[in-house]
Each structure stands twice: as structure tokens, then as C-alpha cells.
Write a structure and sequence with these properties.
The chain is mostly helical. It has one domain (2-83). It has helices spanning 2-13, 17-34, 37-59, 72-83. 20% of the residues are buried.
Length: 86
């Protein structure tokens, strides 16, 4: 589940929003079935911010790499991506 969450964040980072959505859905299902409520809430928050991130990237593709975080969900995705670094 943690892998799917991180992979989904990575896919979103590279603009692969459809793949990110599928990975988030899989991670959410596993978290729900396991009763991992903290992860469920975290995944839902990130997943809900995905559409906003996609809209911003589509509207301003030249700014996609320098996206200013406007919502908590987008900031959480950004922070999660930063933690995945080397």
C-alpha cells in the first residue's frame, strides 16, 4: 500500500494522472480493507488534490515544474515527493 501511494505520487509528478489515480485507488482499497484509517485519510486527501493539480498543470504547462501550492492536498503531494528524493 505504501509503495502504491508513493508510486502514485511519482506518476502525478510526471503528469501521468490517470496512472496516479489507479495507484491511489488501489492503495485506498488496501488501506480500507486493513482498517488503516490514518492511511485512508492521507490517501483520500492526496487523491482529492490530484484533480486540482491536474487542472493547474493543464492550464499552465510552463509552470508545472514550479507549481505554487494553493491547497493542503497539493502541499501534501509536494512534501511527499520531496521525501522521496535521494
Amino acid at each position: 500500500m505504501d509503495y502504491m501511494l508513493k508510486a502514485g505520487i511519482g506518476r502525478a509528478r510526471f503528469g501521468q494522472f490517470d496512472r496516479a489515480e489507479r495507484l491511489f485507488a488501489s492503495a485506498l482499497k488496501i488501506a480500507d480493507e486493513a482498517g488503516l484509517h490514518e492511511f485512508t485519510f492521507r490517501i483520500e486527501r492526496i487523491r482529492n488534490g490530484l484533480s486540482e493539480c491536474q487542472e493547474i498543470c493543464a492550464a499552465t504547462p510552463e509552470l508545472a515544474t514550479e507549481l505554487e501550492c494553493h491547497s493542503e492536498a497539493v502541499r501534501e503531494v509536494s512534501a511527499s515527493l520531496a521525501r522521496l528524493g535521494p
